[in-house]
Predict the structure.
Amino acid sequence: MSEAGGDTRAPVPLAVFGAGLIGLRHAKMIAEHPGATLAAVIEPDVQAAERAAEQDLPVFLSTDDAALDSPDIAGAVVATPNATHGAVAEDAAARGWALLVEKPLSSTLRDARRVVAAADRAGVPLLTGHHRRHHACVAAAREMLSSGLLGRPVAADVAWSLRKPDAYYNYQWRVESGGGPILINLVHDVDLLRFLLGEIVEVSALLSHAQRRGALEDTAAVALRFDGGCLATALLSDAGLSPWGWEAATGENPHLHRTGLDCLRLIGDDGAMALPSLTYWRHDGAGRGDWSKPLSDLAMPCPPTQPLAAQLDHFLAVTRAEAEPLCDGADGLASLAATLAIRESARTGAPVAPDA
C-alpha cells in the first residue's frame, strides 16, 4: 500500500470469451477498472469480433493466436453461449487462468461437470457468475434470515415477467435447447432462493408455449420445496408484459426499463421481507403477532449496488487468492440441477428431486 492508502499492486490481466451483450459489458468494466487490465476479448464470430474491435477492444478470433501465450493473463470471464461453456472453460483452465463462468455453468449437467472438472484438474479457482449474490440487499437479507429476524422461514414467492423484444430471438442459440427463459432468466431466481433459503429438494412445474408457439417455453409456474421445509413459488414469463422482475426492480441492466417494484417476498413465522427494497414487516406489540394484530414496515438501510462491478471486484480477489468464490463450481452445479429439474418435472408431470 502507498502512504495515501492506495492499492499499489499491478492490475490483474483478464481475458473475456464472447463479444455478445454480456461479454462486452464484462470487457468494458474490466477495461475501466483500476485493478484490472483487459488483455483480450476472444470471439470466433467474425462479425461480432469486428464490432468489438470498432470499440477499441483487443480482439482475437481464437486462443490459437500466439499473443495469448503470454503468461501474464491471470483469469478469464466465460460469456459465450451456454452450450459452449465446457470447451471454453477447458481451454482457459488449461492455461492456468482463474475462471468466472457466466450462469448457468452450461446447458446440461454433463457439460457443467466438465467445467468444474477442468478447474479442478488445472488447480484454478472457479466462480459461477450468479451476480445477484453480490447485491448488498441480498447479503443483508441472508444475514437477517440467518439471525432469525423473520423467525422460521415458511414461504417465499418470486416473479419475473418482462416481455422481451422480438429482435431478442434473432440469435439462433436463444431458440435452441441451451436457450430459453428457464436457463437464461429463471436460473437467477433459483440460485437466489437457494442462497437465501437453503437446498432445494423437490420441484414441480408447469410450462407453456402458448404465446410464441415455439420449441422452448415462454412461461413457467414452479413450486419448490427446501430442505428446511420452506416452500416457494416462482412465476416466469418472457412473453408477458409486467413491471415485476429483478432487473426492472433494481435498474441494474441498462437495456431494461426500471420500475423499482419488489419482485421477491420472504415470509417467516415472525416477520416478512420484500426484495430488493429490503422492506421488513413485523409485529411491534407485546406477545407474538397474528392476523388480528397490526404490522409495521421498515425500509432497512442498504447501499445501492452495481452487482456486475461488485462481482468483478470479488473475482479479482479470487484471482489473487485473497478470497474464496462466493458461488463456486459446486454451488453453480446445484443451481443448474434445480433449474433443469423444472423442465424435467414439466415433461413428466411429476415432482422431481434435483440431482447435481
